[in-house]
Every structure is written in C-alpha cells, then in structure tokens.
C-alpha cells in the first residue's frame, strides 16, 4: 500500500509527501491510531487529506497509509434502528468501547459482525443473475424484508448457494460465476459514498409523499422521489417539521441526518421514535429509521461526509424496491463544513466565502433523489428534503438561493408566524411546490374530490387577504366594505382552522387523507355560505363570534382521524347556526321594510 | 504522543503578528499542544500550537505578545493539551480567565487534570433534559420554561439589565417539589468590567450562596485572546462539578459578544477568509463547542444548564453573534430597550423569546396539564395585541372592533402586570393565576387555543370573581 509522510497540519487538513500512488477521494488512515481520512487534493509532490476525527496532538512525520479504495459505507442488515456518525461509526458501539464522550479513536465495524440473521434464499443454483438481482431475504424487522442483492457490476450464474439458516453478515451466501471470475455474495456490501448507485431508468413522479401535515399535503405537496427545502431563521420550526415528517410520512424507510445540529435533538429522536407507532403498519417508528448524527461539535469533515453517507444508504434501500425518504438537517451546516475545509485549502472563495463549487455539489446531492426503476426492475423512490438555515433569516444568501434552484418543493418558514406560536410556520404565499399537477390524480382516488379546485380557491383567498391586510394598515379594518371584511374573516378561519397544526397534539400531529379532505371541504363550504350571508346583508365580523366558528377553528385538534362522523355533525351545527343568522337577518330586514312602509 | 523529555526550545522567533508567533523548525510538536512563552523578564505566557508546517510552527499566545522580542523570547512546548486542575473545594473560589486562583487562597488540590477543550458527548449517551426549573420569573416559567441541562441564552443590549436578571435566576431557581439538592453556579466573566463581576459576587454573597459558586474572571482589561479560554475553563470546572461530584450546575457566561470579538481578532491575524461582518466562517462550530457542553448524561447524576449572556451589537438580532448563537442554543430570552425605558423589569420581549425544550418539561405530572395550551394562548393573544398596537398607531383605536380593543388592553396588562415583577420571585402557581386572570378579560371567540373544558375550568372562574 502507498504511504505518505505528513509535513503540514492545519486543523483537520493535512499535507503529506507521498511514496506510491494515491487516488482522489481515496480513504486513508493516519498514524498509529488509524484516524480515518480522505484524499481531497493531489499535487506532484504532495497529497492533501481531510481527517474525519479530532487531530489534536498530531505531529509532522506521522505516516498516512493508503487503502486503494474510495471512502465507502457498509450496507446490509443492521442499518435500521441504528445511529451512526457522519462516517458511519455506530455510536452505540462506540459508546460501549469508549464511554460517554467521543474523541479517542476506536475501531468498531459499522455493522455488527457477530449478530446472526435468519436468511431465506430465493434463487436456485444455475439461475442467471445480474446486478440488483435479489438472491435471498432477511426479515430485518417484522415489516421490512431486507433483500440481499447481487452487486451492480456483477452478472453470471449462481453456482452454489447457502441453504436457509442463520448467518452473520459477512458469511458468503452464494457463489456467482461471472466474466471476471467467481464472485461471492454475502449480506454485507460496500458502496463509495460519493458515487450514486446505478439504476435502470428514471420514472415520472406520481404520488405525494403523504406527510399528514395539512399545509404540505393540501397546499404544497412533496412528491415521492421529489426534492424539498425548508429554509427559515432559527427557531422557526424546521427541525420539528422534519421530525414530524420523519415520523408520519408514508415512506418504507427513513434516513434522518442531523448534520451539524444539536445533540439533544438526536437524543430526542432516539428517545421518542422507539415508542411511537407507524400509523400504517402499527410497528414502532424506530424500526424503519436510520439515524445519522454528526452534531455541531463533532468533527467538521465528518459533517461534510454525513449527507453522502446517508444518501448512499437511502439509495441502497431504494434499490431493494422501497420508498425511502431522507431528511437532512441542515444543508447549511454541510455547506459551512465545505467552506471551512475549502478555506484551509486556501481556495479562492466565491460568494460569502463559500467555494465556487458549492452550487454543483448541491445539484449533485439533490439529483440523487428520484423515482426509479432499479436494475432488477422494481419501481421505488428516494425523496430528499433538507432544511436550510440562512444567516439572519435572509433567503438571498447563497445556500438558500442555490438550493432553491434544485428543489421543487420550497417550504419557507416565517419568523412572524413562529413568534406568534402559529405552527407550522410555513408561509403560504412564499412557499411553492411544482408537484401539484403530478399529485392531483392521486387525490382523486383518496377522497380529495375537487381537491385541485378547492386548493386554488383557498390560495386565491389567502392572496386576497394579504392584499387587504396592507389596506387595513392604512385605513383600518372598519373602513373596509363588508365584501372585503368577508374575505378577511374567511381567510382567518381557514388559517386557524386548516393550516394550524401542532406537532405536539396527539389528535392532530398526524392528519389522515380522509380527515384532510373533510376539513378542506368544510372550510370551503363555510367560505361559500359566508359569502351568501354577507350578500344577504350579514355583517361578516359577527360570524367570528358564533360558537360554531370557534369549533371550526379548533376542529383539527378536537376531532381525531377515526371520528370522521364528527365532521358531519359539525357541518350540521354550522348549517343551523348560519341558517339562524340568515333568518334573523331576514326578520330584521323585514321589520325594517315594515318600518319603512 | 506525550514526551516529557522534550527540552526547552530556545529558538529565535521568526515573526510576531498580533497574537501569533512563528517558530522555525520545531520537531515533534503536536497540534493544539500547550506552549509557554517566556518574555525577557520572568513573565510566562500561555499559548497553543495552531498550525504546523515544514518550516514553521504557528503559536497562538493567549496573554498577548506585547513586549516579546524576536531575539529574546523563549518558547517551550509541553507535549500536552491545555489542562485544568480540578478537585474538591473548587467552589467558593475566584479564578482568573485561565483557571488559576486569584483570591489569595491555596492552589486547587488536583484530583484530575482535564483538557479544557472537552470532548463531544456521544449523542446516544445524552438524556433529553426534562426537569422543569422554576426560575421565579413569570415570562420564563410560563411561556419559555427552562429545564435542567438546557442552554438558554439571554440576548441583551449594552446597558440593559441582563446581569440583574441572571443573578435573580441564579438566586431564585429551584426544582419543584424537592429539597435543596447539590447545586452550584459557575460564573464566567468574559471581557466584562470588574464591577459586573463584583456585583454578581456580592449578590450571591448576600444570599449566602458564595460557597456554591466558582467565579472565573477575564476582565475587560485582561488580554483579549485569553477570552478564547475562559468559557472553556469554566465549563471544564462545571463538568467536573456535574459529572464527578454529581451537582446540578448553572453556568453563566457573560458576555459572549466579547468572546466572539476575540475570535474575530485572532482569526483575522491568521489571514483567514472572513464570513459575515469579518467573523470567521467556523464561528458556528466554535460556539457550538461551547454551548453543546450543556446537557445531561445517562447514568450520571449531575447536569449542566447554561445561561450565556450576549449583547446584540446595535440591538440587532440578525447580527452574526446572536444569529449563530440562536441557531445552536435551545431558545433565547430577548431583552428590549423599550420595555426597559418604560421601567419594566425584567424587560423581556416576549415575541422573539423561545424555549425549545419547554415541551419536554411542562404539562401533566410536571407543571400543569393545561400549561401548554395556556402558554400558546398567551402567546397568540399577545402577538395579536402587538399587531393591533402597530395598527392602532396608524389608524387610531376607533378603527378597531370591540374585541380588538380588549386585545389591546390585554397586551398592555401583560407588559405592566405579567412581565413586570421587579426583583420579586413569583411561584408558578402565582404566575398561572395571573395569566388566567388576564386571559379571562378576553372573549371566548379569541381564545381558540383553549378547549371548552379549559375555558370552563380556568377562565369562567376568573370571570365570576370579577
Ligand atoms: N409544528 C410545530 N408544532 C408545535 N410547535 C412547533 C412546531 N414547529 C416548531 N415548534 C416550536 O418551535 C420550536 C423551535 O422549532 P425548531 O427547533 O424546529 O426550530 P428550527 O427552525 O429547527 O431552529 P434552528 O434553525 O435553530 O435549529 C420548537 O421547540 C417548538 O416548541
Ligand atoms: Mg433545527
């Protein structure tokens, strides 16, 4: 193996004089402690590496050993339910080896080598197989069949295979005679994190990633296989929203990456997920989740790697035929890691100190999302949603601006809403989704008749509200004619009744499609009836004082997913109250007429 | 890696630039290792290796380079990180900004020597903080609750009463329903005046709490690069007190703005490409290495709760210092000049305040089952009142509906009665009572964050009273 001798140490960046050949992006090991590092630059007489661990105490003269292979992750049973750092060190096992604090180099494999898994072969000897072909299955969880696949670049004939039984992940389970010779396949495989895994073709996006969040599903859907960004200043609710999606969305596998964020948040996920049930399968949420935690105080180079580690795992489950959703919190911290390393390399900075290649790296990352036909033919998807933390909440900064170019669902979080404790604080007019047409079909089949039309009407209402609010600031609300106050009243009821949804309410944290459709229908109905009444002369502001309108504004948390009949009751109550209002109105105008006569 | 045999290094320096010195050809030196720099006389200064190249080593000198000369300064590499001696009887003492006692008392008998940089807590070993701390401050307890192990900064402005608030919190704080536990306060003065530090010390002394306090002082007149060490030294002491002696430690760091300025100064002397407003691009990670040292660890009895104080330059919350802090801490308490001018203490500006761990520490079995809804309703009505206040300043109160006028009035009473409490401690029950009473002034139609049951239970009662 090639070696190199370190002569410069600048934080996580080292330069060394090589003896032998190194490749770009090759994984290398530094010193006797074998710190993990990666080659990031090659010159005639020097290599530059970034070290993924603490470099305190490192001295010049220390040796770097090459590995000949790119930095890769281990793939196989044992990923689900685990928590890894940015370069896939298993944090539970690390704690077992080195205690409560990170820091000292420990050598533990990413996936447990001792654990045995029940394996069931699904091909016979003599079968012709090629990349992606499933040769056997492991029920990794009661709900997820882990498919052991032929590596993408291998094709040939199965010459032997292991019988059903319990095996460790590195036990060979089949031998394939291929053009390159005999290849043995076990449950364990490896894949370089910076190289997208191959698939046969991309497919058009068709259905929404169901999130159970009304403002997303109803207004700005994210498609399965699509991309989304959630920018917002500190405390606007990005993390809570991401975690809410990770809990309730209808993907088969969740990859959750805490990239440069808080330790307590990751501890929170670890504490909470094992006790929450997936509303569709009834299994614990932790069973479908892989956590990657490279918190803000962990090494910055590993933070840079973390999103690639995560997305490679995502692609791996996608290739097994599953719908995967990846959440990265926060893309900005990843970009800052990139900036820090770039600064130490003394590269010429572009905007705000970020390297000029920031946009292309972002594009490459988001491009790894998609709905695909796998090499072996399964149709599945990888959805990628990232938060963005713009300095000062200013969306014109480079990371927000560039992310916006590559994502199709943009959920802008608004400081004013968050400060008023209006959650989710997604701004309905600054956000957008390009998946509305591709998901309209889906709604048709899930109770959302006239969804597209109602959604349009609601958006128009909110737009009009924003315009009128500006006028109110100048002339006061009372100066507006009833027809305009009607718009304000209906918009307020819509916003409070439909768009507000607390992530901490047991009844409302997840809103099933039927409930969403019912709520949207009811709000739409209220808007129409309000219009009729105002036409007939009712003062719009009196509507707000009706107890039933208070109920309308609380229906999300008062009515749970199972009690859909309550919506019918609420509709009747609404009708009764509005009818009463209308008839008292008629009476009044009748009396007035009588007086007039 | 440690080589105790390594000798004194007498080399002539090749260059001195700001807080950095450049030394030629230092063999076997390790990154971030501790360095002693001896000036002509017997003054020894603390430094740290920050870059090692073929032909040079760069050392950051924390106690300034004034008076050093190329020919005469001597540099000694110590083959170890910067360490702090920790041991019993650390409390009740006063230390300088690098952790040496300056109160005339004895040296600390070192049970251990700990690296001041600390190591990151493995996330799987963290315990989510959830024990509610009653601070006695209504705006915090009711609406931005603090829990043990949280990091909750005070965003202030120069001249505002953040120190007074912090010392009130330090004095009042207690867990509900428990006896006095092993409790300690670590106070780190970072570039503040002697008065500020002395005032805090006196307050605690009067309260008889001095025996539970460790003060670390880097005063305004002390070298600025030393400020990079002070919070780390203080937190190292706190970690010892928490995780080895099992105490619940409240760490007050004031003023983090001075810390960030020192960081900028050192970074610019390195010739680094700056990010916003000249602050280094890694300031987020650097601050995180301080703030993330708050928390609780599974299986260890103590905890570290942090209240960093920072003054927002020009009262601007989007300035990089409060902005990056807000992105790391678990919420913030924001002080307001206008409330202060109106004589309201504590001048807490409710809307931008937040406690992210609040949801973990309040509610059934912890404070009150209706606490979350109560806080939500106070916030939502206060935000409406705030909005109406702006509106009425343009269109006049006449343009408002009756309900709106009630909201306006509610907002004023919140400022004058709820937020204002001077130096008196309020129990949580008193705080709840006051809040429900103010909410009872509002019509049901605006109380949409409360359920019918909650209105019946809490609101109707007060309406009957009045
Ligand atoms: N959907 C929601 N429902 C209820 N509360 C919410 C919701 N979203 C956010 N919050 C509240 O807002 C607080 C801040 O949210 P969060 O931590 O997600 O902010 P953030 O945008 O991730 O901030 P940062 O960028 O600093 O990480 C939460 O602790 C919670 O109290
Ligand atoms: Mg967050």
Rg over alpha carbons of chain B? 25 Å
| Beginning-to-end CA distance, first to last residue of chain A | 107 Å
Count all strands of chain A and give the number.
26
Look at the structure and give the CATH class of the largest domain in chain A.
Alpha Beta
User: What structural class should be given to the helix and strand makeup of chain A?
Assistant: alpha+beta
Characterise the protein shown here.
The complex is a heterodimer of chains A (597) and B (466). Chain A is of the alpha+beta class. Chain A is 36% helix and 23% strand. Chain A has 17 helices and 26 strands. In chain A, helix 7 packs parallel to helix 8 (398-406) and helix 11 (451-475) crosses helix 12. The longest helix of chain A is centred in the last third of the chain and has 32 residues, at 565-596. Chain B has 3 domains: 13-81, Thrombin, subunit H; 84-360, Rossmann fold (3-Layer(aba) Sandwich); 371-465, no CATH class. Chain B is α/β, with parallel strands linked by helices and 466 residues long. Mean pLDDT of chain B is 90; it is low at 1-5. Chain B is elongated. Chain B has an 8-stranded mixed β-sheet, sandwiched between helices. Chain B contains 13 helices and 19 strands. At the A-B interface, strand 1, helix 1, helix 4, helix 6 and helix 11 of A face helix 6, helix 7 and helix 10 of B. The complex binds adenosine-5'-triphosphate (ATP) and magnesium ion. Adenosine-5'-triphosphate sits between chains A (232, 234-241, 261, 389, 423-424, 502-504) and B (327, 354, 356, 359).
Features of this protein?
A: 597 residues; alpha+beta; Elongation Factor Tu (Ef-tu), domain 3; OB fold (Dihydrolipoamide Acetyltransferase, E2P); 6-stranded antiparallel β-barrel; 17 helices; 36% helix; elongated; B: alpha/beta; Thrombin, subunit H; Rossmann fold; 3 domains; 8-stranded mixed beta sheet; 6-stranded antiparallel beta sheet; 19 strands; binds adenosine-5'-triphosphate; binds magnesium ion
